[in-house]
Please model this.
Amino acid sequence: MIEEITHLLKKASIKAGIIDPFIKLEHPEDISHGDFSTNVAMVYTKVLKIAPKILAEKIVEEFNKDLPSTLSNATVAGPGFINIYVHNSAVTKNTTSVISLKENYGRSDIGGGKKIIVEYSSPNIAKPFTIGHLRSTIIGDAIANIYDFLGYKVIRDNHLGDWGTQFGKLLFAIDKWGDWDKIEKSDSPIKDLVALYVKFHDEALIDKSYEDQARNLFKILESGENSDITEKWRKCIELSKKEFSKIYDKLGVSFDTEFGESMFASPEKSNEILEILKSKNLLTTSENAQVVIFENEKYPPLIIQKSDGTTIYATRDLATDWYRKNTYGKDLMIVNEVGSEQTLYFRQLFEIERLLGWFEIGERIHVSHGLYRFKDGKMSTRKGNVIWLDDIIDEAEKRAVALNPESANDVAIGAIKFNDLKRDCAHDIVFDWDEIMNMTGDSGPYLQYACVRAEAVLDKAKEKGLKVDTSGTRPDIVSLDMLERYMMHFEEKLVFSANSFKPNILAGYLINLASFFNVFYAQTVIVDEKEEGTAYKLAVTQAFIYTMRNGLNLLGIKVPKRM
RNA sequence: GCACCCGUAGUGAAAUGGAUAUCAUACACGCCUUCGAAGCGUUUGUUGUAGGUUCGAGUCCUACCGGGUGCACCA
Model:
């Protein structure tokens, strides 16, 4: 329909005197201004030296001469907008198609099977799974879901932080202050490990030699020569993974691959990367370390190999992407959903990968999100002031149980996820218990509730043996009309959400959609055997449910049976 | 010091350069003897400052002010 309207508007504009017009179609914010609108008359008013309204009227006159059956008419409004109204029959056709496509409604093949790796969550082993990782997990999962729905071949990768100097610190702390047997038997070994990690940073302030000793331990770990150390490292991973999987189960998140950084840290792999960089003349020695220096000081230098010869995150990330490139081949896009504090690093990394000819601009994406912080500062593992994810889920469930025990888990998770997904991820969030598990207003439970309630309506209709279809009379109800027309925007919002890597576009759409339904629900009695339009109203209700369920599903939010 | 991000009702947020800047929350007042009140309705209140580009700026550009993050062996 968009293509058809654009084509017809172009024809009409040319007849009105515009040479080679550029048509931009949009949906007016106020739905009463029509289903589509264009500003073409305002854009060309200066060139043609005609008042925008007069030009718009000329275009509309031409446009209305040759209307397709899908449109009812076009009008001029405001300063010179051209508003286009879709014919009721086309609206009905859309609703009919939603009902027939069900859970496939909105699915498309625009991805054409193009591969996209979405790397998200990526917690660090032996560091807490806190609210900080929550954002990456929730947003990354939603992005992966949306791309999958749009016909991309999505690879969800949890890039576990299971390597690095942090393990030298941890192993040092376990050895010095920890009780290994106790950790192994603990209910929450991660919390024990984190306590040791925090202790390390406290003590390292006093004894300056600890940092060096920790780095040395990491060097031994990376060399693989001390089996005792390697074994302890392996055990830490095992214990952490066990706890992570519990949380992923609760969140309903799963991955295709969980390659840790350690997979890309072998001497052979890092040497291969260093050779590649050398061959392109990108490597410089500086203070015994190998670094990449960027032309014109575009970015600060980036260390690729530390002066003690061990790898650093950049080495391992390059090795990871080299592996991905060789494994998944051409036409590959890689998205890293990682906090905004790593923005500079990712720019450096992408620049290197571009210079190496691995990826073009647009094939490497950093979706960055702002931080959760307290009113008085940043959360920091090293300092030990963090909020644990399990605590948040537990607290949310407690609040949801108070309203209805049956659906507590789905509602709690829905509230937490939606609170994150409804906002532009660039902003920092000041942590607030009431805010994060909000269950009224613009919230997950608001959407779930609208859906559950709509389903109850259909159940009741089914009991009475009523028909659910669009073949009968279309009731003349404003709220029904608005709901039905707004439903037509679903696929477009999905595409826009995907292209801009902003799940909050979809989230905002669903809020509006639910609100349209709630108004419709409040203003009319849907199940009414005596009324002619009941089958149609039920059909629109059914279409709403499919659209809402599909949308929520993409955001990783489940709809409970009752709530 | 340099770089990047963010400044929108009391609070939290939304808005592909478009129309009267939207939504929630809080406050006040209404609506369940007809489909589920986690809902619906009514009322109050907003684009940091100063310039610029544009027919049109919360959005783009410049400067400033405020907050955040990052800048060599952490990830």
